[in-house]
Amino acid sequence: MLNYIWIGLIVIGILTAVGVDLRNEAADTYRNGSSLEAAFLPERAPGPLHAALEGVVIIPAGVFAGHYGLTQRAGQVRQESSLSSDGGTITLSIDESSPDLWREMARAATARDRLLGSVTSVRWGPDGTTALIRFTLEPIRFVRLRAVTQAAFDYAGTAVTIAIGLIGIMALWLGVMKVAEEAGVLKIVARVLAPVMRRLFPDVPADHPAASAMIMNIAANMLGLSNAATPLGLKAMEELNKLSPKAGTATNAMCTFLAINTGGLILIPATALAVRAAAGSANPGIIIGTSIIGALCATIAGVLAAKILEKLPRFRKSLEADHE
Amino acid sequence: MSELFRTIVNAVGALAIPAVLLLFLGWAALKRVKVYEVFVEGAREGFPVALRIIPYLTAMLVAIGIFRASGAMDILVSLLAPVTSWIGMPPEALPMAIMRPLSGSASLGIMTELMKAHGPDSFIGILASTMYGSSETTFYVLAVYFGAAGIKNTRHAVPAGIIADVAGMLAALWIVRIIVK
Questions:
Q1: Any chain A CB within 8 A of the CB of B144?
Q2: Residues of chain A contacting B141 with CB distance shorter than 8 Å
Q3: Is B145 within 8 Å of A233 when comparing Cβ atoms?
Protein backbone atom coordinates (compact mmCIF):
# COMPACT_ATOMS: atom_id res chain seq x y z
CA MET A 1 0.00 0.00 0.00
CA LEU A 2 2.86 2.37 0.79
CA ASN A 3 4.07 1.84 -2.80
CA TYR A 4 0.78 3.20 -4.18
CA ILE A 5 0.63 6.14 -1.79
CA TRP A 6 4.23 7.03 -2.51
CA ILE A 7 3.92 7.01 -6.29
CA GLY A 8 0.51 8.66 -5.92
CA LEU A 9 1.97 11.66 -4.09
CA ILE A 10 4.69 12.09 -6.71
CA VAL A 11 2.49 11.62 -9.80
CA ILE A 12 -0.38 13.76 -8.47
CA GLY A 13 2.14 16.42 -7.44
CA ILE A 14 3.90 16.61 -10.81
CA LEU A 15 0.72 16.42 -12.89
CA THR A 16 -0.88 19.16 -10.80
CA ALA A 17 2.20 21.33 -11.25
CA VAL A 18 2.07 20.84 -15.03
CA GLY A 19 -1.67 21.58 -15.08
CA VAL A 20 -1.38 24.72 -12.96
CA ASP A 21 1.52 26.03 -15.05
CA LEU A 22 -0.34 25.42 -18.31
CA ARG A 23 -3.43 27.13 -16.93
CA ASN A 24 -1.36 30.13 -15.80
CA GLU A 25 0.26 30.26 -19.24
CA ALA A 26 -3.12 30.18 -20.99
CA ALA A 27 -4.66 32.75 -18.64
CA ASP A 28 -1.49 34.87 -18.82
CA THR A 29 -1.60 35.17 -15.02
CA TYR A 30 1.81 36.85 -14.86
CA ARG A 31 1.10 39.28 -17.76
CA ASN A 32 4.38 38.35 -19.46
CA GLY A 33 5.53 41.07 -21.84
CA SER A 34 2.96 43.72 -20.95
CA SER A 35 4.11 46.92 -19.32
CA LEU A 36 3.11 48.50 -16.03
CA GLU A 37 3.17 52.17 -15.05
CA ALA A 38 4.36 53.24 -11.63
CA ALA A 39 5.74 56.14 -9.66
CA PHE A 40 9.38 55.87 -8.61
CA LEU A 41 10.54 57.70 -5.49
CA PRO A 42 14.32 57.73 -5.10
CA GLU A 43 15.73 57.82 -1.58
CA ARG A 44 18.02 60.68 -2.60
CA ALA A 45 17.69 63.14 -5.44
CA PRO A 46 19.54 61.92 -8.54
CA GLY A 47 22.96 63.54 -8.42
CA PRO A 48 25.42 64.15 -11.21
CA LEU A 49 27.19 60.84 -10.43
CA HIS A 50 25.92 57.99 -12.54
CA ALA A 51 25.02 55.37 -9.98
CA ALA A 52 22.01 53.09 -9.49
CA LEU A 53 19.15 54.82 -7.68
CA GLU A 54 17.67 53.08 -4.64
CA GLY A 55 14.05 53.89 -4.03
CA VAL A 56 10.45 52.80 -3.87
CA VAL A 57 8.11 51.87 -6.69
CA ILE A 58 4.54 52.90 -5.91
CA ILE A 59 1.50 51.46 -7.67
CA PRO A 60 -2.07 52.30 -6.57
CA ALA A 61 -4.04 49.20 -5.46
CA GLY A 62 -6.56 49.56 -8.28
CA VAL A 63 -3.90 49.83 -10.99
CA PHE A 64 -2.07 46.73 -9.70
CA ALA A 65 -5.26 44.68 -9.42
CA GLY A 66 -6.40 45.87 -12.85
CA HIS A 67 -3.10 45.01 -14.51
CA TYR A 68 -3.03 41.44 -13.17
CA GLY A 69 -6.80 40.94 -13.26
CA LEU A 70 -6.99 40.30 -9.52
CA THR A 71 -10.42 40.24 -7.93
CA GLN A 72 -9.10 40.75 -4.43
CA ARG A 73 -7.60 44.14 -3.90
CA ALA A 74 -4.70 44.46 -1.45
CA GLY A 75 -3.37 47.84 -0.37
CA GLN A 76 -1.21 50.21 -2.38
CA VAL A 77 1.99 48.55 -3.57
CA ARG A 78 5.19 50.05 -2.10
CA GLN A 79 8.08 48.03 -3.42
CA GLU A 80 11.76 48.50 -2.54
CA SER A 81 13.65 48.65 -5.80
CA SER A 82 16.60 50.13 -7.60
CA LEU A 83 16.79 51.89 -10.95
CA SER A 84 19.96 51.32 -12.95
CA SER A 85 22.16 54.31 -13.77
CA ASP A 86 21.18 54.35 -17.45
CA GLY A 87 17.53 54.19 -16.44
CA GLY A 88 17.07 51.01 -18.47
CA THR A 89 16.52 48.39 -15.79
CA ILE A 90 14.51 48.27 -12.59
CA THR A 91 15.23 45.62 -9.96
CA LEU A 92 12.46 44.82 -7.48
CA SER A 93 13.79 43.34 -4.21
CA ILE A 94 10.99 40.96 -3.33
CA ASP A 95 10.48 40.29 0.39
CA GLU A 96 7.74 39.51 2.92
CA SER A 97 5.98 42.85 2.33
CA SER A 98 5.76 42.46 -1.46
CA PRO A 99 2.44 41.55 -3.11
CA ASP A 100 1.68 37.80 -3.02
CA LEU A 101 1.67 37.55 -6.79
CA TRP A 102 5.11 39.12 -7.12
CA ARG A 103 6.45 36.84 -4.39
CA GLU A 104 5.11 33.86 -6.30
CA MET A 105 6.70 35.16 -9.50
CA ALA A 106 10.06 35.84 -7.84
CA ARG A 107 10.34 32.20 -6.80
CA ALA A 108 10.49 31.27 -10.49
CA ALA A 109 12.60 34.27 -11.56
CA THR A 110 16.27 34.24 -12.53
CA ALA A 111 17.32 35.53 -9.13
CA ARG A 112 15.05 33.96 -6.52
CA ASP A 113 14.47 37.09 -4.43
CA ARG A 114 14.40 39.68 -7.20
CA LEU A 115 12.30 40.55 -10.23
CA LEU A 116 13.97 42.36 -13.11
CA GLY A 117 12.10 44.77 -15.34
CA SER A 118 13.19 46.61 -18.46
CA VAL A 119 12.21 50.27 -18.29
CA THR A 120 10.77 51.74 -21.48
CA SER A 121 10.25 55.31 -20.32
CA VAL A 122 11.27 57.54 -17.40
CA ARG A 123 9.75 60.96 -16.96
CA TRP A 124 11.07 62.99 -14.04
CA GLY A 125 8.75 65.42 -12.30
CA PRO A 126 9.62 69.15 -12.27
CA ASP A 127 11.33 69.03 -8.83
CA GLY A 128 13.22 65.79 -9.59
CA THR A 129 11.94 63.90 -6.51
CA THR A 130 9.59 61.52 -8.36
CA ALA A 131 9.58 59.90 -11.73
CA LEU A 132 6.83 58.26 -13.71
CA ILE A 133 8.24 55.05 -15.14
CA ARG A 134 6.87 52.38 -17.44
CA PHE A 135 8.46 48.95 -17.21
CA THR A 136 8.00 45.37 -18.35
CA LEU A 137 8.93 42.56 -15.96
CA GLU A 138 10.97 39.56 -17.09
CA PRO A 139 8.75 36.75 -18.40
CA ILE A 140 7.77 34.24 -15.69
CA ARG A 141 6.93 30.63 -16.58
CA PHE A 142 6.70 27.19 -14.94
CA VAL A 143 6.31 28.53 -11.41
CA ARG A 144 4.94 25.27 -9.96
CA LEU A 145 7.32 22.96 -11.81
CA ARG A 146 10.26 24.97 -10.54
CA ALA A 147 8.80 24.84 -7.02
CA VAL A 148 8.40 21.05 -7.30
CA THR A 149 12.01 20.66 -8.45
CA GLN A 150 13.23 22.83 -5.60
CA ALA A 151 11.12 20.92 -3.07
CA ALA A 152 12.50 17.57 -4.22
CA PHE A 153 16.09 18.73 -3.68
CA ASP A 154 15.34 20.59 -0.43
CA TYR A 155 13.54 17.65 1.17
CA ALA A 156 16.24 15.19 0.17
CA GLY A 157 18.60 17.40 2.15
CA THR A 158 16.15 17.69 5.03
CA ALA A 159 16.01 13.90 5.33
CA VAL A 160 19.76 13.77 5.92
CA THR A 161 19.62 16.70 8.36
CA ILE A 162 16.97 14.92 10.42
CA ALA A 163 18.86 11.62 10.40
CA ILE A 164 22.17 13.25 11.36
CA GLY A 165 20.39 15.15 14.13
CA LEU A 166 19.23 11.84 15.55
CA ILE A 167 22.71 10.37 15.95
CA GLY A 168 23.49 11.99 19.29
CA ILE A 169 20.24 11.31 21.13
CA MET A 170 20.12 7.86 19.52
CA ALA A 171 23.55 7.08 20.98
CA LEU A 172 22.55 8.44 24.40
CA TRP A 173 19.41 6.34 24.69
CA LEU A 174 20.87 3.19 23.21
CA GLY A 175 23.70 3.49 25.74
CA VAL A 176 21.31 3.96 28.66
CA MET A 177 19.12 1.10 27.47
CA LYS A 178 22.12 -1.22 27.19
CA VAL A 179 23.14 -0.43 30.76
CA ALA A 180 19.57 -0.94 31.97
CA GLU A 181 19.41 -4.24 30.13
CA GLU A 182 22.63 -5.51 31.73
CA ALA A 183 21.34 -4.53 35.17
CA GLY A 184 18.00 -6.25 34.61
CA VAL A 185 15.97 -3.04 35.04
CA LEU A 186 14.19 -3.54 31.73
CA LYS A 187 12.86 -6.91 32.83
CA ILE A 188 11.26 -5.27 35.87
CA VAL A 189 9.68 -2.55 33.70
CA ALA A 190 8.33 -5.19 31.34
CA ARG A 191 7.02 -7.44 34.11
CA VAL A 192 4.80 -4.72 35.59
CA LEU A 193 2.94 -4.19 32.34
CA ALA A 194 3.15 -7.80 31.12
CA PRO A 195 -0.64 -8.47 31.18
CA VAL A 196 -1.33 -5.48 28.89
CA MET A 197 1.63 -6.20 26.65
CA ARG A 198 0.72 -9.87 26.24
CA ARG A 199 -2.67 -8.87 24.91
CA LEU A 200 -1.38 -6.17 22.56
CA PHE A 201 1.69 -8.04 21.35
CA PRO A 202 1.08 -11.78 21.73
CA ASP A 203 4.17 -12.63 19.64
CA VAL A 204 6.57 -10.72 21.90
CA PRO A 205 7.85 -12.57 25.01
CA ALA A 206 7.13 -10.42 28.08
CA ASP A 207 10.77 -10.28 29.19
CA HIS A 208 12.16 -9.51 25.71
CA PRO A 209 14.01 -6.16 25.41
CA ALA A 210 11.47 -5.17 22.72
CA ALA A 211 8.68 -5.13 25.30
CA SER A 212 10.43 -2.75 27.68
CA ALA A 213 11.59 -0.49 24.84
CA MET A 214 8.00 -0.23 23.59
CA ILE A 215 6.69 0.56 27.09
CA MET A 216 9.27 3.29 27.56
CA ASN A 217 8.61 4.70 24.08
CA ILE A 218 4.87 4.96 24.75
CA ALA A 219 5.48 6.53 28.18
CA ALA A 220 7.91 9.09 26.69
CA ASN A 221 5.43 9.90 23.92
CA MET A 222 2.63 10.51 26.38
CA LEU A 223 4.81 12.88 28.38
CA GLY A 224 5.74 14.72 25.18
CA LEU A 225 9.44 13.81 25.48
CA SER A 226 10.01 13.30 21.77
CA ASN A 227 13.81 13.42 22.15
CA ALA A 228 13.57 10.24 24.19
CA ALA A 229 10.55 8.70 22.46
CA THR A 230 12.01 8.43 18.97
CA PRO A 231 15.28 6.67 19.97
CA LEU A 232 13.37 4.29 22.26
CA GLY A 233 10.88 3.59 19.47
CA LEU A 234 13.68 2.86 17.00
CA LYS A 235 15.33 0.59 19.57
CA ALA A 236 11.98 -1.21 19.99
CA MET A 237 11.69 -1.66 16.22
CA GLU A 238 15.20 -3.13 16.04
CA GLU A 239 14.40 -5.56 18.84
CA LEU A 240 11.08 -6.51 17.23
CA ASN A 241 12.97 -7.16 14.02
CA LYS A 242 15.05 -9.81 15.82
CA LEU A 243 11.80 -11.70 16.45
CA SER A 244 10.74 -11.47 12.81
CA PRO A 245 10.53 -14.64 10.73
CA LYS A 246 11.11 -12.73 7.49
CA ALA A 247 13.70 -10.01 6.96
CA GLY A 248 12.45 -6.74 5.50
CA THR A 249 8.79 -7.44 6.31
CA ALA A 250 6.77 -5.86 9.12
CA THR A 251 5.50 -8.23 11.81
CA ASN A 252 2.09 -8.01 13.49
CA ALA A 253 3.70 -6.56 16.60
CA MET A 254 5.45 -3.85 14.55
CA CYS A 255 2.19 -2.80 12.88
CA THR A 256 0.34 -2.64 16.21
CA PHE A 257 3.22 -0.67 17.74
CA LEU A 258 3.19 1.74 14.79
CA ALA A 259 -0.59 2.18 15.13
CA ILE A 260 -0.12 3.19 18.76
CA ASN A 261 2.60 5.63 17.77
CA THR A 262 0.67 7.22 14.89
CA GLY A 263 -2.34 7.62 17.21
CA GLY A 264 -0.18 10.22 18.91
CA LEU A 265 -1.47 9.88 22.47
CA ILE A 266 -0.01 12.78 24.45
CA LEU A 267 -1.05 14.24 27.80
CA ILE A 268 -0.06 17.84 27.04
CA PRO A 269 -0.12 18.96 23.38
CA ALA A 270 2.67 21.46 24.03
CA THR A 271 3.12 22.79 20.48
CA ALA A 272 -0.57 23.46 19.92
CA LEU A 273 -0.79 25.11 23.35
CA ALA A 274 2.15 27.38 22.57
CA VAL A 275 0.66 28.46 19.23
CA ARG A 276 -2.70 29.16 20.88
CA ALA A 277 -1.09 31.24 23.61
CA ALA A 278 0.95 33.17 21.05
CA ALA A 279 -2.23 33.88 19.05
CA GLY A 280 -3.74 35.50 22.15
CA SER A 281 -6.17 32.79 23.21
CA ALA A 282 -8.23 33.49 26.34
CA ASN A 283 -8.18 29.79 27.21
CA PRO A 284 -5.31 27.89 25.54
CA GLY A 285 -5.83 24.87 27.81
CA ILE A 286 -9.29 24.09 26.45
CA ILE A 287 -7.72 21.78 23.88
CA ILE A 288 -5.97 19.52 26.41
CA GLY A 289 -9.12 17.51 27.07
CA THR A 290 -10.29 17.50 23.46
CA SER A 291 -6.85 16.44 22.20
CA ILE A 292 -6.62 13.55 24.67
CA ILE A 293 -10.06 12.29 23.61
CA GLY A 294 -9.19 12.69 19.92
CA ALA A 295 -5.88 10.86 20.31
CA LEU A 296 -7.47 8.15 22.45
CA CYS A 297 -10.05 7.47 19.72
CA ALA A 298 -7.30 7.47 17.09
CA THR A 299 -5.16 5.03 19.10
CA ILE A 300 -8.03 2.65 19.83
CA ALA A 301 -9.17 2.71 16.20
CA GLY A 302 -5.58 2.15 15.01
CA VAL A 303 -4.95 -0.80 17.33
CA LEU A 304 -8.30 -2.41 16.48
CA ALA A 305 -7.64 -1.89 12.76
CA ALA A 306 -4.16 -3.44 13.08
CA LYS A 307 -5.59 -6.42 14.99
CA ILE A 308 -8.33 -7.01 12.41
CA LEU A 309 -6.21 -6.37 9.33
CA GLU A 310 -3.46 -8.76 10.46
CA LYS A 311 -5.98 -11.62 10.16
CA LEU A 312 -6.73 -10.87 6.49
CA PRO A 313 -5.31 -13.59 4.20
CA ARG A 314 -3.31 -11.18 2.04
CA PHE A 315 -1.49 -9.71 5.03
CA ARG A 316 -1.06 -13.11 6.69
CA LYS A 317 0.49 -14.54 3.57
CA SER A 318 3.03 -11.76 3.18
CA LEU A 319 4.58 -12.60 6.54
CA GLU A 320 5.09 -16.30 5.88
CA ALA A 321 8.73 -17.13 5.35
CA ASP A 322 9.66 -17.66 1.71
CA HIS A 323 10.80 -21.26 2.09
CA GLU A 324 7.44 -22.44 3.42
CA MET B 1 -8.88 21.35 36.98
CA SER B 2 -7.17 21.60 33.62
CA GLU B 3 -4.60 23.92 35.21
CA LEU B 4 -3.77 21.42 37.97
CA PHE B 5 -3.52 18.59 35.44
CA ARG B 6 -1.16 20.68 33.35
CA THR B 7 1.07 21.48 36.33
CA ILE B 8 1.27 17.83 37.31
CA VAL B 9 2.04 16.60 33.80
CA ASN B 10 4.62 19.35 33.30
CA ALA B 11 6.33 18.41 36.56
CA VAL B 12 6.38 14.73 35.64
CA GLY B 13 7.72 15.66 32.20
CA ALA B 14 10.53 17.70 33.71
CA LEU B 15 11.46 14.98 36.19
CA ALA B 16 11.11 11.97 33.89
CA ILE B 17 14.45 12.01 32.07
CA PRO B 18 16.69 12.80 35.08
CA ALA B 19 14.78 10.22 37.13
CA VAL B 20 15.16 7.52 34.47
CA LEU B 21 18.87 8.27 34.06
CA LEU B 22 19.49 8.22 37.81
CA LEU B 23 17.41 5.09 38.38
CA PHE B 24 18.72 3.01 35.50
CA LEU B 25 22.38 3.98 35.74
CA GLY B 26 22.40 4.06 39.56
CA TRP B 27 20.74 0.65 39.82
CA ALA B 28 23.20 -0.78 37.31
CA ALA B 29 26.16 0.65 39.26
CA LEU B 30 24.83 -0.96 42.47
CA LYS B 31 24.59 -4.26 40.60
CA ARG B 32 28.27 -3.85 39.71
CA VAL B 33 27.64 -3.42 35.98
CA LYS B 34 30.59 -1.68 34.31
CA VAL B 35 28.32 1.25 33.49
CA TYR B 36 30.70 3.34 31.39
CA GLU B 37 31.90 0.46 29.27
CA VAL B 38 28.41 -0.92 28.68
CA PHE B 39 27.03 2.55 27.89
CA VAL B 40 29.67 3.10 25.22
CA GLU B 41 29.00 -0.36 23.83
CA GLY B 42 25.29 0.43 23.44
CA ALA B 43 25.77 4.00 22.23
CA ARG B 44 27.92 2.75 19.34
CA GLU B 45 24.69 1.50 17.70
CA GLY B 46 23.36 5.06 17.40
CA PHE B 47 25.31 5.93 14.28
CA PRO B 48 24.32 2.97 12.07
CA VAL B 49 20.65 3.31 13.08
CA ALA B 50 20.60 6.99 12.13
CA LEU B 51 22.31 6.23 8.81
CA ARG B 52 19.93 3.37 8.08
CA ILE B 53 16.86 5.62 8.11
CA ILE B 54 18.25 8.09 5.53
CA PRO B 55 17.01 6.27 2.37
CA TYR B 56 13.55 5.69 3.87
CA LEU B 57 13.23 9.26 5.08
CA THR B 58 14.51 10.68 1.77
CA ALA B 59 11.94 8.69 -0.21
CA MET B 60 9.11 9.79 2.05
CA LEU B 61 10.02 13.46 2.43
CA VAL B 62 10.72 14.01 -1.28
CA ALA B 63 7.31 12.59 -2.25
CA ILE B 64 5.56 14.71 0.38
CA GLY B 65 7.61 17.77 -0.63
CA ILE B 66 6.61 17.41 -4.30
CA PHE B 67 2.96 17.02 -3.30
CA ARG B 68 3.10 20.11 -1.08
CA ALA B 69 4.90 22.33 -3.58
CA SER B 70 2.60 21.45 -6.47
CA GLY B 71 -0.48 22.94 -4.84
CA ALA B 72 -2.32 19.63 -5.32
CA MET B 73 -3.80 20.02 -1.86
CA ASP B 74 -5.99 22.96 -2.96
CA ILE B 75 -7.51 20.74 -5.63
CA LEU B 76 -7.96 17.86 -3.17
CA VAL B 77 -9.69 20.23 -0.74
CA SER B 78 -12.15 21.45 -3.37
CA LEU B 79 -12.93 17.83 -4.31
CA LEU B 80 -13.43 16.68 -0.72
CA ALA B 81 -15.16 19.78 0.65
CA PRO B 82 -18.72 18.76 -0.38
CA VAL B 83 -18.29 15.39 1.37
CA THR B 84 -16.77 16.75 4.56
CA SER B 85 -19.13 19.70 4.93
CA TRP B 86 -21.92 17.11 4.89
CA ILE B 87 -20.53 15.71 8.18
CA GLY B 88 -20.13 19.22 9.57
CA MET B 89 -16.42 19.79 9.01
CA PRO B 90 -15.77 23.39 7.90
CA PRO B 91 -13.83 23.46 4.59
CA GLU B 92 -11.22 25.73 6.22
CA ALA B 93 -10.19 22.87 8.51
CA LEU B 94 -9.87 20.35 5.68
CA PRO B 95 -6.26 21.22 4.70
CA MET B 96 -5.35 20.58 8.36
CA ALA B 97 -6.94 17.13 8.30
CA ILE B 98 -5.18 16.22 5.05
CA MET B 99 -1.74 17.63 5.93
CA ARG B 100 -1.51 16.44 9.55
CA PRO B 101 -0.46 12.84 8.73
CA LEU B 102 1.88 13.97 5.94
CA SER B 103 3.91 16.86 7.29
CA GLY B 104 4.41 18.22 10.79
CA SER B 105 5.78 21.57 9.65
CA ALA B 106 3.05 22.12 7.03
CA SER B 107 0.25 21.35 9.47
CA LEU B 108 1.86 23.60 12.09
CA GLY B 109 1.81 26.38 9.49
CA ILE B 110 -1.83 25.70 8.62
CA MET B 111 -2.83 25.73 12.29
CA THR B 112 -1.06 29.07 12.85
CA GLU B 113 -2.70 30.58 9.74
CA LEU B 114 -6.17 29.40 10.77
CA MET B 115 -5.74 30.91 14.22
CA LYS B 116 -4.60 34.19 12.75
CA ALA B 117 -7.57 34.30 10.37
CA HIS B 118 -10.36 33.03 12.64
CA GLY B 119 -9.04 33.61 16.17
CA PRO B 120 -7.72 30.90 18.53
CA ASP B 121 -10.99 30.64 20.47
CA SER B 122 -13.26 30.34 17.45
CA PHE B 123 -14.74 26.98 16.45
CA ILE B 124 -12.20 26.60 13.64
CA GLY B 125 -9.31 27.71 15.87
CA ILE B 126 -10.15 25.15 18.56
CA LEU B 127 -10.82 22.45 15.97
CA ALA B 128 -7.51 23.04 14.19
CA SER B 129 -5.47 22.97 17.39
CA THR B 130 -7.30 19.85 18.62
CA MET B 131 -6.60 18.15 15.29
CA TYR B 132 -2.95 19.11 15.56
CA GLY B 133 -2.69 18.02 19.19
CA SER B 134 -4.51 14.74 18.82
CA SER B 135 -2.49 13.19 16.04
CA GLU B 136 1.00 12.32 14.89
CA THR B 137 2.77 12.80 11.56
CA THR B 138 1.94 9.24 10.49
CA PHE B 139 4.07 9.02 7.36
CA TYR B 140 7.13 10.46 9.07
CA VAL B 141 6.77 7.93 11.91
CA LEU B 142 6.32 5.13 9.36
CA ALA B 143 9.45 6.10 7.43
CA VAL B 144 11.69 6.56 10.47
CA TYR B 145 10.53 3.56 12.51
CA PHE B 146 10.44 1.08 9.65
CA GLY B 147 13.68 2.54 8.35
CA ALA B 148 15.45 1.70 11.61
CA ALA B 149 14.42 -1.94 11.29
CA GLY B 150 15.12 -2.04 7.54
CA ILE B 151 11.49 -2.87 6.76
CA LYS B 152 10.42 -2.40 3.14
CA ASN B 153 7.15 -4.35 3.09
CA THR B 154 5.02 -2.47 5.63
CA ARG B 155 2.00 -4.83 5.36
CA HIS B 156 -1.06 -3.44 7.15
CA ALA B 157 0.75 -0.66 9.01
CA VAL B 158 -0.27 2.03 6.48
CA PRO B 159 -4.01 1.24 6.40
CA ALA B 160 -4.04 0.92 10.21
CA GLY B 161 -2.24 4.27 10.53
CA ILE B 162 -4.65 5.97 8.11
CA ILE B 163 -7.65 4.51 9.97
CA ALA B 164 -6.18 5.90 13.19
CA ASP B 165 -5.77 9.34 11.57
CA VAL B 166 -9.30 9.44 10.16
CA ALA B 167 -10.71 8.30 13.51
CA GLY B 168 -8.67 10.97 15.29
CA MET B 169 -9.86 13.76 12.97
CA LEU B 170 -13.52 12.67 13.25
CA ALA B 171 -13.25 12.37 17.03
CA ALA B 172 -11.69 15.85 17.20
CA LEU B 173 -14.57 17.27 15.13
CA TRP B 174 -17.15 15.50 17.30
CA ILE B 175 -15.72 16.56 20.68
CA VAL B 176 -15.06 20.17 19.61
CA ARG B 177 -18.64 20.52 18.34
CA ILE B 178 -19.92 19.31 21.71
CA ILE B 179 -17.67 21.70 23.63
CA VAL B 180 -17.99 24.84 21.53
CA LYS B 181 -21.68 24.72 20.59
A1: yes
A2: 258, 261-262
A3: yes
**B146 and B159 fall within a common domain:** yes
CA–CA distance, B156 with B152 (Å, rounded to integer): 12
In chain A, residues with a C-beta closer than 8 Å to the C-beta of B49 are: 166, 170, 174, 234, 238
The count of other CB atoms within 10 Å of the CB of residue A5 is 16
Contact between chains at A306 and B28 (C-beta distance less than 8 A): no
B98 and B151 belong to one structural domain: yes
- Point out the residues of chain B with pLDDT beneath 70: 1-2, 181
What range does the domain containing B16 cover? Answer: 1-44
Distance, in Å, from the CA atom of B131 to the CA atom of B175, rounded to the nearest integer, reads 11
Residues of A in contact with B132 (CB under 8 A): 269, 271-272, 275
Mutation site, A167, A178, A218, A273, interface B, largest B CB count within 10 A: A178
Q: pLDDT tens digit string along B15-24?
A: 888 988 998 8
For residue A308, the number of C-alpha atoms closer than 13 Å in the C-beta half-sphere is 10
Distance in Å, alpha carbon of A239 to nearest chain B alpha carbon: 8
- Contact present, A132 and A39 (Cβ < 8 Å): yes
Could you tell me if B57 and B24 lie in one domain? no
Mutate to test the interface with A, among B62, B152, B173, B180 (most CBs of A within 10 A): B62
Cβ contact (<8 Å) for B129 and A267? no
Share of chain A above pLDDT 90, in %: 50
Spatial distance between the Cα atoms of B95 and A179, rounded to a whole number of angstroms: 45
Reference B148, options A39, A107, A210, A34; nearest CA is: A210
Evaluate whether B35 touches B25 at the Cβ level (below 8 Å): yes
Q: Tell me the ipTM for this assembly.
A: 0.90
Pair (B17, B59) in one structural domain: no
The string of DSSP letters for B111-132 reads HHHHHHHH-TTSHHHHHHHHHH
In terms of domains, do B126 and B145 share one? Answer: yes
Give the pLDDT score at A324. 42
Residue A133, CA distances (Å) to A57, A84, A125, A145, B97 in order: 9, 12, 11, 32, 47
Q: Residues B152-181: pLDDT tens digits?
A: 999 999 999 999 999 999 999 999 999 886
Q: Rg (Cα) of chain B, in Å, rounded?
A: 21
Could you say which residues from 7 to 36 on chain B have a Cβ atom under 8 Å away from some Cβ of chain A? 9-10, 12-13, 16-17, 20-21, 23-25, 27-28, 31, 33, 35
Chain B: give the shortest CA distance to residue A67, in Å. Answer: 24
Say how many domains are in chain B. Answer: 2
- Which residues of chain A carry a pLDDT beneath 70? 45-50, 73, 321-324
B105 and B123 fall within a common domain? yes
